[in-house]
Amino acid sequence: MSSDEGARAPRRRVNGILPGLVKGLATTARTLTRPSHTAEYPDAPPSLPPRSRGVIALTDENCTSCMLCARECPDWCIYIDSHKETVPAPATGGRERQRNVLDRFAIDFSLCMYCGICIEVCPFDALHWSPEFEYAEVDIHEMLHEKDRLGQWMATVPAPPALDPGSAEPAEVAAANKPARAVRPATPTGTVRMPVAELTGAEPTGAEPTGAEPTGAGGATTVEDITVAGDVPAAGDEQP
Ligand code: SF4
Ligand code: SF4
């Protein structure tokens, strides 16, 4: 390297540093005049979108213990216990029914990865997202939220967004608004008159004149009184 080249090298270095320094100072000056984006949490609560995934809330009245959520949970962090109960028939002559009674529903939030699959698969809208996120604990065992605690989160679940104008009524709302079917009163044991051919399954051998009382003679169909239990169809009742 010649002596001239050796003197020019530091000058080039200074020429390269100066514009960078000026640019950096200009950026600092510009940023100083802008408002700060730093949130001083927990003194200043963060402004989160209303449908943030904070914690899962449970409406246990909607839960039928179908176990779909527990089966689909990739972390296996949903625990459900239930037992069966017999519900008596609503009217005389009806049948008893069996229903599941929820004993325990718990989510271990120390394992949950907030994927939302349990909420998506629940067919009865028993699980919902709440934006609440301040439930950190010192003891990891406290991250297991039981039914009562999950139910308390329901108060923080935002209302669903309004339907699009002109959209069809949701099926569950239509079903809830449908008038209940009247329960037919059970008829006590009674006697009906039935053609013998109908009882035995035999083909009638002759045509019956309209309105004529069957006699059983000459190929006419005979009738017999039979006793039936339960509903006796009244005249004019529609047959299924
Ligand atoms: S959000 Fe995902 S990981 Fe958490 S309980 Fe539901 S299904 Fe399991
Ligand atoms: S999927 Fe819904 S109804 Fe079924 S057990 Fe889970 S929360 Fe209950």
Keywords:
240 residues, two-stranded antiparallel sheet, Alpha-Beta Plaits, 6 helices, alpha+beta, elongated, three-stranded antiparallel β-sheet, binds iron/sulfur cluster
Give an overview in words:
This protein is elongated. The chain has a domain at 55-160: Alpha-Beta Plaits. The protein has 240 residues and is an alpha+beta fold. The N and C termini lie far apart (110 Å). It contains 6 helices and 7 strands. The protein binds iron/sulfur cluster (SF4) (2 copies).
Short summary:
The chain has 240 residues and is of the alpha+beta class.
Helix content: 10-25%
Count of distinct strands: 7
Oligomer: single chain
**What's the N-to-C terminus distance?**
110 Å
Structural class: alpha+beta
User: Radius of gyration over alpha carbons?
Assistant: 39 Å
Proportion of residues in extended strands: 15-25%
- What is the typical, i.e. mean, pLDDT? 81
* CATH fold group of one domain: Alpha-Beta Plaits
The biggest sheet, with number of strands, parallel, antiparallel or mixed sense and barrel status, is: 3 strands, antiparallel
At CATH's second level, what is the architecture of one domain? 2-Layer Sandwich
Order of helices and strands: HEHEEHEEHHEHE
Bound molecules: iron/sulfur cluster
Number of helices: 6
CATH class of one domain: Alpha Beta
| Order of adjacent strands in the largest pleated sheet | 2-3-5
Q: How does the overall form come out from the CA principal axes?
A: elongated
